[in-house]
Amino acid sequence: MPESAMTQEAIARTRSRRGLPQPHSRPTVTEEELRLKDYITPEDVMNLSCITKDYLCSHDANVYDIDFIRFKIRDMDSGVTLFEVAKPAGYDPKQHHTPGEVIDPDAGRFVRYHFSQGFLKLQSVGATVEFTVGDKPLTHFRMIERHFFRDQELKCFDFEFGFCIPNSKNSVEHIYEFPELPSDLMKEMVENPFETRSDSFYFVDNKLIMHNKADYAYDEPDVAAL
Questions:
Q1: If we measure between CA atoms, which residue out of 42, 28, 21, 44 comes closest to residue 155?
Q2: Which of 154, 144, 141, 133 has the alpha carbon at shortest distance from 197?
Q3: Are 182 and 35 in contact (CB under 8 A)?
Q4: Which helix (DSSP H) or strand (DSSP E) does residue 186 occupy?
Q5: Which of 17, 26, 76, 147 could form a disulfide linkage to 198, CB 3.0–4.6 angstroms apart?
């Protein structure tokens, strides 16, 4: 598989780099309304006023065979790696199930993170993602990621991956500039694990083709370098 020329650093376009997002002022839309559409656009997901309850597209919507194979998060100031995971080479999930076992089609679309309390005080982190692409080229590959604590939006990121050639392996590092959180809000987030959640929406040519979800707990020991 050829390596794509796309080895680059992308800067997040955040709605608020050093403060919480302003109150939601766009026209709101519900998940149910979006599911009635022929396809979902970036503008649609930006008009959601809260975290989603379910996935907005099926696993089969990924007609480009995009497969995320490695993910690493690092503190931009200290360089400390905070999280890293990679698929073993040649990994086939079907080989890891017993005969007759039902394979969850949403497996791999959800991640549960455990970070330290110090993570909430970081100003910026780099998230390196490696992914492969199938037989079709990717044009205007874009990710919108929205983070909430309960029903309060914490931050929103918008990344452009650029063009990816067919049958390529790609690597890109996104830089997340975090807002400064009030101390009372950070305390609530620590005391209520997994009520901090995120939606990651992936688009090709402005059509939703992947939707991943995550939740977060801040219960790990602090790293000295943080």
A1: 21
A2: 154
A3: no
A4: helix 183-191
A5: 147
CA gap 109, 119 in Å, rounded = 23
Contact 67, 217 (CB under 8 A): no
Tell me the three state secondary structure of residue 142. Answer: strand
Residues 4-26 pLDDT 10s: 545 445 544 443 344 566 665 66
- Other CB atoms within 10 Å distance of the CB of residue 19: 12
pLDDT tens digit string along 88-146? 876 555 555 566 655 666 778 999 999 999 999 999 999 999 999 999 999 999 999 99
Q: Per-residue b/e over 62-76, b at no fewer than 16 CB within 10 Å?
A: bebebebbebbbbbe
CA dist 60 and 206 (Å) reads 17
With CA atoms as reference, report the closest residue to 201 among 139, 128, 144, 141. Answer: 144
Which pTM does this prediction carry?
Answer: 0.85
DSSP string for 52-98: -SS-SS-GGG-TT--EEEEEEEEETTT--EEEEEEPPTT--GGGGS-
Cα–Cα nearest to 146, from 154, 131, 138, 156: 156
